[in-house]
Structure of MBL fold metallo-hydrolase:
Amino acid sequence: MKSKYYNQIPTPMSTSFASLASMIKEYSRTGVQRKPDQAIPVRVMDAAALTEGEATQVTWFGHSASLIQIDGKRLLLDPMLGETSSPFPIFNSKRYSGRLPIEPEQLPPIDAILLSHNHYDHLHHGSIMKLKDKVEHFFVPLGVADYLIRWGVEPHKISEHNWWDEVEYMGLKLACTPARHFSGRGLFDRDQSLWCSWVIEGAEHKIFFSGDSGYAPHFKEVGAKYGPFDLTLMECGQYDERWSSIHMSPEETVQAQLDVQGGLMIPIHWGAFTLALHAWTDPVERALKAASQQNVRVITPQIGETVTLGMEDYPTAAWWR
């Protein structure tokens, strides 16, 4: 019998007929721009430039997928690099940008992939198949290794972790930390694998990746144990009152940034797919407004634009307007 995993605090999710009916009714309403009118801008990445330097850099690919270069190591976070967000047509959404900053085949060797959970918009079969032979190691929460092994990743290249596990890897310190979410890729595997966030600590800089999460006390716990962070990648999109326990509102994202003692924040989990009923730009607009009120520093790189920690001018342009 497979394990079943639970959040640290009660996490209700409405799945009633009334909730579903209200979603269908709201979806049929016009006046909410749930996707851009045309393909959004993308910075094309130079594969040769990715092989140089020791600076700490982060490049966002849209949604939650990001490339981190730290202490000369390359880490990919939740590399969902497919064209659509789901294998199920009713829930599907095409990538807003219409293209990636760089194709998976063009990426240089990757030292590690870090996965936060097994949902299709984070663990993507097609992306893993294109990347697996150029990746040295996979770090995943408990129960996720089975998918990778089934897809041909050699077991010795995978490490499964529980919350608060720490590991030293190629000079980096990685910590698997809690999130408030759930897992499952079908009708019968709900919560049979774990979900998590990640701490990445190098010689000079610390980075926090929230994964998918509702707001909860674990953010303060992570901040107390591992903060402050130089940079965070914080979920701020695909929210709804009906599932507010598993996805943060942008205002909660800003509070979570304060809780983890974050410095710079890049809002993620938006800008690629429509997976909720809010306007596609609401996540970043609301996050920026709340951040200005809370004195939180948010940076807004375009998809494919590389941010170097310590750079003179961080990207703050409202490129989505």
Notes: Helices lie at 17-27, 125-131, 145-150, 218-226, 250-259, 282-294. The chain has a mean pLDDT of 94. Residues 34-308 form a domain with the Metallo-beta-lactamase; Chain A fold (CATH 3.60.15.10). The longest helix spans residues 282-294.
